[in-house]
Amino acid sequence: MKRIIALLLTLVMLAGFAACDRKHADRKPREDNPVETESKVSIDRLKSYDGPMLVITSTIQAPIPDDVERESSLILYYDGSLCYPGYPNECLGMLTDEDYMTVYSFCVETVRNDTFADYYEEVCDGQTYRFLFYDEDGEEHVLYDGYIYQNDELNSILDIVYGN
């Protein structure tokens, strides 16, 4: 189990490095509002954008051995692929269209409503998550950064992304 965690955390760290390089790579300009409702947007148009849509970074907030990576990330790109940073040619697969639109709608609604602005869990250690959304113009939005033990909505997004 420790080896799996160490591998995942290493992959996340490497993903972070790659994400920095790809953050604004080859974005296509938009004339309209960068955050649209799901009823106005077509999945084909969304998948035509380059770059990441959602980066989820998990961080261990407890004492760990020196040989275990503290952070790991997973990137959902606009084309629907899920990859660990640093391994652009080794993606984990593609989200289904239904899951893709669920995640996209979650991101857009969270930005629009600032859903988790006041959300906080009092926890001493464990694992925190950072949800970072890039809209179609490449603008970065921190959706949430913290513990999510009691939050079903954030956990359901994790289930979709990591369950793939």
Total E-strand runs: 6
**Rg, alpha carbons:** 16 Å
Order of helices and strands: HHEEEEHEEH
Give the domain tally.
1
Q: Overall 3D geometry?
A: globular
How is the biggest beta sheet arranged?
Answer: 6 strands, antiparallel
> How many DSSP H or I helices?
4
Average pLDDT level? 80
Share of helix among residues? Answer: 25-40%
Beta fraction of the residues?
Answer: 15-25%
- Quote the distance from N terminus to C terminus: 20 Å
The chain-level structural class is alpha+beta
- Across the major sheet, the strand order is 4-3-2-1-5-6
Low-confidence stretches: 1-39
Topology:
Blueprint: H1 2-22, H2 43-47, E1 52-60, E2 71-77, E3 81-83, E4 91-94, H3 97-113, E5 127-134, E6 140-146, H4 152-162
Antiparallel strand pairs: 1-2, 1-5, 2-3, 3-4, 5-6
Give an account of the 3D structure:
With 164 residues, the protein is an alpha+beta fold. It has one domain. It has 4 helices and 6 strands; from the N terminus they run ααββββαββα. It has a 6-stranded antiparallel β-sheet. A hairpin with a 3-residue loop joins strand 2 (71-77) and strand 3 (81-83). 26% of the residues are buried. Mean pLDDT is 80; it is low at 1-39.
Task: Please give a handful of descriptors for the protein shown.
164 residues, alpha+beta, 23% strand, globular, disordered N terminus
Brief description of this entry?
The chain has 164 residues and is of the alpha+beta class. It has helices at residues 2-22, 43-47, 97-113, 152-162, and strands at residues 52-60, 71-77, 81-83, 91-94, 127-134, 140-146.
